[in-house]
Write a structure and sequence with these properties.
alpha/beta; Conserved hypothetical protein from pyrococcus furiosus pfu- 392566-001, ParB domain; 3 domains; 6-stranded mixed beta sheet; 8 strands; about 50% helix; about 10% strand; Chromosome_partition/occlusion
Length: about 300
């Protein structure tokens, strides 16, 4: 690989600041619209004139953490300005800093300090992804979705994407493969009910029924990644599991009601969150639909046509 490409990869690996700095150096050689340009000074922009970034990879925000940040902003103000691009007079779109923008609104701020840059859609997606990965811990599903969007929308190969985000190709591949998992397993991974190691073991199983079986075993028996790897190998070799993580003989699984299990899986896929369906022999029971934030609740209510 050429020295130029090495410099580019190293710069991107350092974060959003390096990305924007390198974009500025390119601008002196190429003044096309694909180049990011730095504004000359800091600006105070009305929060009502800023729309959220449609390329934001983070889809879930912790309400309690936002409240804490909001209280800090009330006392200390905005320590680090957000970054936006201008779409039209008095109209801006966020590039990075959505948590700060949301918290500022909660704190009652009418204006917020911001840097104004020019960026095309591809740069918007890249900047948002890199900024979030390096400043906040995105869950694996959010990272996987972001990688897939960059591959699809920016026409990047996995190796090129790895260069952009400072990761090797195998890491990118492992994340993108997560999107092949059933929705309820993706939800469990998103909600930290299982780890990336668990998911990588599960995905090696071809049958969805086996994948869901392993998921239920992880949650009911708190299986370690090593135990899951052994369980997966046994399933691939058509061998019964011999023991649980505590070394005791595994209990035979109770025969699940196929109709209830199928309904639960369909509801999970429909709502995009893990639905729990409980029923007795007389088909009396309950359906639980969890939500993680006010926005998530509104999303579910929209699906229910409330």
């Amino acid at each position: 690989m050429s020295n130029t490409n090495n410099i580019k990869r190293n710069a991107l690996g350092r974060g959003l600041g390096a990305l924007l700095k390198d974009a500025d150096s390119v601008k002196s050689k190429n003044t096309t619209e694909t180049t990011a340009a730095v504004a000359s000074n800091l600006n105070e922009i009305p929060v009502e004139q800023i729309e959220v970034n449609s390329y934001q990879p983070r889809s879930h925000f912790n309400d309690e953490a936002l409240k804490e940040l909001s209280e800090s902003i009330k006392i200390q103000g905005i320590i680090q300005p957000i970054t936006v691009r201008q779409l039209a007079p008095n109209q801006y779109q966020l590039i990075s800093g959505e948590r700060r923008l949301r918290a500022s609104k909660l704190a009652g701020l009418t204006n917020i300090p911001a840097y104004i840059r020019t960026a095309n859609d591809q740069q918007m997606l890249e900047m948002a992804l890199i900024e979030n990965i390096q400043r906040e811990n995105l869950n694996p599903i959010e990272i996987a979705i972001s990688y897939q969007r960059m591959i699809t929308e920016c026409n990047l190969k996995q190796e090129e994407l790895g260069d952009r985000v400072g990761k090797n190709r195998s890491t990118v591949t492992n994340y993108v493969r997560l999107l092949k998992l059933p929705p309820d397993i993706q939800v469990a991974l998103r909600d930290n009910e299982i780890s990336m190691g668990h998911a990588r073991s599960i995905i090696s199983l071809e049958k969805i029924e086996q994948q869901l079986y392993v998921l239920n075993k992880i949650k009911s028996e708190e299986l370690s990644v090593r135990a899951v790897e052994e369980l997966v190998r046994n399933l691939q070799n058509n061998k019964p599991a011999s023991a649980d993580t505590k070394g005791t003989p595994a209990k035979p699984a109770a025969a699940a009601n196929a109709e209830i299990s199928s309904l639960q899986n369909k509801l999970t896929s429909h709502f995009g969150t893990k639905i729990q369906v409980k029923s007795d022999k007389q088909f009396k029971g309950e359906i639980k639909i969890p939500f993680v934030s006010a926005e998530d609740l509104n999303r579910i209510l929209e699906i229910l046509n409330f």
